[in-house]
Write a structure and sequence with these properties.
This protein is mainly α. It has one domain: Helix Hairpins (Orthogonal Bundle), CATH 1.10.287. 87% of the residues lie in helices and 0% in strands. Helix 2 runs antiparallel to helix 3. The longest helix is centred in the first third of the chain and has 29 residues. The protein is elongated.
């Protein structure tokens, strides 16, 4: 009984995350300002990280959890670099 609930919950979460990734992609393409695009990219990588975690829960593979950690770290660094670029016009001082 509880395994069935977990499988259904993870499936629903994956569908909703896929819809959120589509919405973030549309905002990334259509965003009127650069700040909107950076925020959409940040949302996209968080959704991608959560999607990898749900794949890991569903399959039981440890590789998905490590990939989610790498996505989180690289996404954070990328967001900080883009924000610094938008504020000052250069990343490295």
């Amino acid at each position: 009984m509880s395994a069935t609930i977990i499988i259904w919950s993870v499936s629903i979460a994956q569908i909703l995350l896929a819809l959120a990734m589509v919405a973030a992609t549309l905002r990334l393409i259509k965003g009127p300002r650069a700040q909107d695009r950076v925020l959409a990219l940040d949302t996209f990588y968080v959704n991608a990280m959560l999607m990898m975690l749900t794949f890991g829960i569903r399959t039981g593979g440890e590789l998905y959890f490590e990939a989610a950690l790498i996505i989180a770290v690289l996404g954070f660094v990328g967001t900080v670099a883009l924000a610094k670029f938008l504020m000052r016009g250069e990343v490295i001082e």
